[in-house]
Amino acid sequence: MSAYLRPRAGDPAEVGTPTAVDVTVDGQPVVAQAGQTVAAVLLANGRDTWRTTRVHDRPRGIFCGIGACQDCLVTVNGLPDVRACQRTITPNDTITTQPGAVLPTTSSTAGSEDAGADVVQDAGAARDAGPVAGRGRRVAEVVVVGGGPAGVAAALAAGDAGAQVLVVDSGRAVGGQYNRQLPEEFAARRPDRLQHEWKAFAEQRDRLSSHPRITYLPDTSVWAIEGLRVWAQTGPADASGRQPFAIDARSVVLAAGAYDRVLPFPGWDLPGVYTAGAAQALAKGQRIAVGRRVLVAGTGPFLLPVAESLVGVGAHVVALLEANSLTTVRKGWSSDPLVAPSKLREAVGYGALLARHRIPLRHGWTVIAAHGSDHVEAATIARLDSDWRPIRGSERRVDVDAICVGFGFTANLELAVSAGCTIATGPDGGPAVAVDANQQTSTPGVFAAGELTGIGGAALSTAEGTLAGTTAAHHALTTAADHARTAAGDQTLTTAAHHTFPGSGVDGVAGVRRAVEGGGGLRWRWGGLIPCGTGGRVGALRTRSSAAVRK
Hints:
This protein is an alpha/beta fold. The chain contains 13 helices and 29 strands. A hairpin with a 2-residue loop joins strand 13 (220-226) and strand 14.
């Protein structure tokens, strides 16, 4: 076990004195702090595994860090299958490790299966009988699903356009993965030190919270969309007793973001292998370092802020491996002269960070194996040829206690599929929601923005969110006759819209899209990197329902 909680002394965020919270793990009291997730409590107390798989009894702990992979399931207050990375602790929580498949208890306590079953039954009844008793039906002109850069931009644009907006966010606070904030309970005096472009984000966050036409629902998950009716439930992640309720909207903006894409390699299911996003989420959001000697590998510029976050919690990053060659990366970033200069200062800052902490950046290298008995103890890295095949004889063994990997991102498409939206191929080769020139999907009244329409980063997400929010408000505030005339225009669906935003510095969505397409994203040459015997995580980071089949 190598993960640890960063000491408060010297923390650049200047985290305040925590409030102690009484919780137990497997019957033993442990040290816990208000605002921590269950995963953070376990990691800070020397536990990096707390579940075993159903068939092969292999150890599992946290992997994706954002609730997508189902590896970190744990039993809380008698209720199994709680995602430890998503659940924030409460006083007197009873946390129990989960060996194999665990059935809920049959007691009538608040954490029992009885309460959970009631929720399922109520959900089924609600679909047939309309509004759920006790919660009622909400009505909004525009519903925005997601609180990241695209969702925040969409909400502000729709509100400014005159619509009443309801933002539904599974997080405890706006920001999403990109602008992840520390919990309020941490009382950080300098959270800006953990975030690039903090001032701009803080202004957006404050404007959203004070906007007279925007209502924000945190800790609220959307589990189905039927036409323009959104089904949601509010409460702690995976807790029993959450009651579903319906939201009837005139327009819906989907801004659900994305999750890490990971390529399998021998040993990748060992405890101590994390996605790059998990490492950053734990560092930025919980001040947890996943290891003391950490290897970061994958592709794309996201690896740089991950390394920065790891350094910020005291980890030693032994190397940063970029699978693309230096020639490929240079070619990508030189493809758009308008955007490349805007990232120059940020790139120089990352370069200085790597130099200051003596972190080698190797282009054309990646990790091909992880080694260890019950935890990562070493990694084998290798140089890649132009087709991403390991070059024989270039292999090196590196002693590490954690490996963080990320080969781009995959869009969270579940809700778009539920809404009946057409799914096409995005600019990076992955699946994406098809949208027209106004960010509207093939489902009338449903708009999409951000990573759903193609992986492109925060700048593109914000631009698309602004457009989607504006057009969603227009759709919500116009008449049915207007909609019929617009539909007769036969706008073509695409995954790379072309819009111009005055003062944006680039040619709107299209300009930002061109830059990120060439900016070192994932090259789809996986064949040489997927050997046999890759372990039990094949298919990891799929949808929540399909991930459950992993054994």
